[in-house]
Amino acid sequence: MIPARYAAALFPLVMTFFMAGVVSLLLTLVNLGTPPGFLRLWLLNWALAWSFAFPAAMMAIPIARRIVGWLTTAPR
Question: Residue 54: which of 24, 2, 10 has the closest Cα?
Fold first, then answer.
């Protein structure tokens, strides 16, 4: 099992894995339909999308937390 101290990096790793998969599947289907070799093409697109999504998420998460902090108020 992975120690809990890695949760801050593991969550975006898993989340971007699934999000990149779903988005790349949708965009591949919309743009190409289901041509021969679809699975290979989709997996290549997924790998490319995820290789950008994970580092982007790691940079965006602290910024998003700050923005959410500015937009919300603490409970009383």
Answer: 10
